[in-house]
Amino acid sequence: MQSETETKESISYEDFKTQVLKDYKVAVTSRECSLLGRREVLTGKAKFGIFGDGKELPQIAMAKSFKNGDFRSGYYRDQTFMMAIGHLSIENFFAGLYADTDIENEPMSAGRQMGGHFISHNNNDDGSWKNLMEQKNSSADISPTAGQMPRLLGLAQASKIYRNVDGLDAEMFSNNGNEVAWGTIGNASTSEGHFWETVNAAGVLQVPMVLSVWDDEYGISVHAKHQTTKESISEVLKGFQRDQDKNNGYEIIVVNGWDYVELVEAYDKAQKIAREEHCPVLIHVVELTQPQGHSTSGSHERYKSDKRLAWEKEFDCNAKFRTWIIENGFSTPEEIDKLDKDIKREVREGKKRAWNAYLNPNKEKQQELLQILSNIAKKSDAEEHLKPLIKKLKSTKEPLKKDVLSLARKTLRYIINFNGEDKTELINWIKDFNDQSFDEYSSHLYSTNKAIDNEVLPVYADEPKMVDARIVIRDNFDKIFETRPETMIFGEDAGEIGDVNQGLEGLQKKYGSYRVADTGIREATILGQGIGLSLRGLRPIAEIQYLDYVMYALQTISDDLATLHYRTKGKQKNPLIVRTRGHRLEGIWHSGSQLGGILNLIRGVYVLVPRNMTKAAGFYNNLLDLDNPALIVECLNGYRLKERLPENLGEFKTPIGKVETLREGKDITLVSYGSTLRIIEQTADELAEIGIDVEIIDVQSLLPFDTSHDIVESVKKTNRLLVIDEDVPGGASSYILQKVLEDQNAWRYLDSKPQTLTAKEHRPAYGSDGDYFSKPSHEDVYEKIYAIMHESNPEKFPKLM
Fold first, then answer.
1. Cα dihedral 618/621/626/631 (nearest 10)
2. Which intervals hold domain Transketolase-like pyrimidine-binding (predicted)?
3. Which of 301, 431, 642, 671 is deepest in the core (most CB within 10 A)?
4. Could you please report the per-residue DSSP string of 279-306?
5. CA pair distance 127, 138, nearest whole angstrom
6. DSSP label at 742?
7. What tens digit of pLDDT does each residue of 585-637 get?
């Protein structure tokens, strides 16, 4: 049996015995936390529990081979592993169960995720990187089954990049690519598409990845016979097994989850293959159990037979480990019994400390409020209304924050006519509590430790060269890759042919296939590559060929990329740039403008919609100096239009969150973005001929949106507003209206009803005619603006039709 570089033969018997008993203590501690955690849920102290019982032994074996610099992308049952690497204490475990918002008590998410979702702190408080080579790393878990798989691919690929790309500043991130990415997943979740996409891509890329499948034969109540062909994922994947010539493929290992010796040997073998050969390894851990069932929401006795339940009791990995320890003379039954008893006591005491740490700040707030309300009751005429509230507050033995704040806010209803220092004190107390609550529950959605609205204008020669717009984006990427070795781009057709619009033409030949790379048709794991690479200090640009195809990756963007900074309260960041192209071509799946849905699903990611390639290039340059992830939608029909070629490539920056006024006017404010702006600008000239003077504003950035509130300043002047958008009715146009009317209070300055002009409800029909009849056309824009002006001045602008 091996543990890292040590073997049973190379250490003393006493040292080996100490290791074994230490492992046993971790296993039993984890189990006791699971058992007591379930009781805490059933008594109401916690809302929900999903635990790692039955998986303790393989997770301990995995921890033995997990080294500093390695990364985990795991399953929400990996509590034993986190305990084994020293990242999860008993108190931390229960703080997660109680949703303690103090990140010192609950370092996994500060109460933002349910228990069982684990992280390591990879960023300092100022957002800068920690030295990831000095710690064991865990990327932040998510609940969607198999959702951890795409990111696992990128975490593993980063080692490949660090090993093969020169010029990288790798001191804090890699030791020549020797790090392994460790993935874990339940057997039933291997049915998900994300699992299959990742497994295939990892085999193609040959990355150092060890993927463990915890197999207890069930997915909640559904047996493996309904989940997996042949009821065995390792049987199904035999075609992935590499051959004797070690052609691309996997090393596949099957091991019983209750066999300590075999587990440790299996994991040591796996990590050596992955670390040294950069070959992915699958470890199928079979014959595992789940003693408490799937979660606290149900009982496994309902769907498991008596025979199965009896087998699970006999083959429980902790019970088997105990028997092995005694049979091999490492301890006696009496000593083990005493150890078990001591562990139970430690877990109970740790639980109590965690509960008190969670509850005491709430009690302090409760006492503060009681004092304030008592003072108000004595001095106001609302004493009879306040007495029941004060009584209710006093009688609450274990108050939640919402209990205290809710009651304080209700109090204001009864003291509207009361004035005095005590009322002011109450109002200030509520404001302070709300500010504290924002930090605890709503902070860190975006990584904003740097200014995002910096603008550096393009510099042009006296007689600038006019080129196809694709040349602007291509040459800007060239400058980026030349000056920033940590950058790379990958996607379908991005490498050899330089993307479908040749915005990367010739760059693979110049910078190599590790930095400008083709991928398979697999959008979810293209995003996953980007997430994992960015978690390891690189600056990837993940290309999705068309905006329509972002739908394949939307779950990964929404659940993982967009939430990471928030769900770790700033302790992890993934500054991935997602490059795509959309708007106005032809056909249902090549004319994407579904931004209304995207905007509302990926809050946390910047959404940028440049109208031309110079603006797009400026966004890339800006983002590479920032830490927040972003989606850039280039105009699909703009690559062959002519633009001036800037001289300061790689340096000019388009400000994020800032609009640009393209044309000043006094009659109506037109707000739009992307390709539609060209139609609007053409129409503006024709409207000017009949005396309609329009002001045109390019949004540029949808998330964040007009942070300087420039649009309302335009509406103050024109008193009319039209939002023109090629998304469906109620899509991005509704979002823009809400921002302008509510956030900027533009309604105060309107003389006419604010309106939108959008595409039809359906996807664009094929062909140029289809685009004309599906999305706002030149005539649509003209007639809509004319109708608004007719309403305000019918004599000057008689009815058109």
1. 60
2. 467-641
3. 671
4. --EEEEEES---TT-S-TTS-GGGTS-H
5. 17
6. I
7. 677 888 778 899 999 999 999 999 999 999 999 999 999 999 999 999 999 99
Backbone angles phi, psi at 630, to 5 degrees: -150, 150
Closest to 561 measured CA to CA, from 569, 548, 551, 573: 573
The least confident of 219-233, 485-499, 709-723 is 219-233
Whether 148 is in a domain gets the answer yes
- In a domain? residue 306: yes
pLDDT at 442: 96
Measure the CA–CA gap between 182 and 210, rounded to whole angstroms: 5
Percent pLDDT > 70 in the chain is: 98
Q: Which domain holds residue 188?
A: 13-331
Q: Is 146 helix (H, G, I), strand (E, B) or coil?
A: coil
* Closest listed residue to residue 199, CA positions, set 160, 147, 237: 237
CA–CA separation, 85 and 275 (whole Å)? 19
Token couple for 692: 């309609």
Q: How far apart are CA 297 and CA 347, in angstroms?
A: 23
- pLDDT value for 1: 38
289 and 157 share one domain:
yes
293: left (phi > 0), else alpha (psi -120 to 50), else beta? Answer: left
Cα distance between residue 282 and residue 264, in whole Å? 15
3 pLDDT above the threshold of 80:
no
**Which residues have a catalytic role annotated?**
590
Pairing of strands 218-219, 222-223: antiparallel
Host H or E run for residue 578? strand 577-582
**Does residue 280 form part of some domain?**
yes
Nearest to 731 by CA among 676, 649, 686: 676
- Percent of the chain at pLDDT > 90 equals 88
Sorting pLDDT into bands at 50, 70 and 90, what band is 10? low
How confident is the model at residue 148, as a pLDDT? 97
DSSP for 87-139, written as a single string: ---HHHHHHHHHT---TTT-TTTTTSS-TT------B-TTSPBP-GGGS-EEP
Token readout for 287 is: 């014959």
CA angle (730 as vertex; 729, 731 as ends), nearest 5: 90
Interval 475-494 mean pLDDT = 98
Written as six digits, the tokens of 361 are 């700040």
DSSP label at 201? H
In a 3-state reduction of DSSP, which class is residue 429? Answer: helix
Looking only at the bridges linking them, the beta strands covering 577-582 and 209-214 are: unpaired
- Which CATH number characterizes residue 501's domain? 3.40.50.970
pLDDT tens per residue, range 202-231: 999 999 999 999 999 888 888 888 999 999
The pTM for the full model equals 0.95
Of 604, 583, 612, 587, the residue nearest 732 (C-alpha)? 583
Cα dihedral 100/560/608/468 (nearest 10)? 160
With a cut of 80, say whether residue 295 has pLDDT above it: no
704 preceded by a cis bond (ω within 30 of 0): yes
Q: What DSSP element (H or E) covers 83?
A: helix 79-84
Residues 397, 257: one domain? no
Q: Is residue 455 part of a domain?
A: no
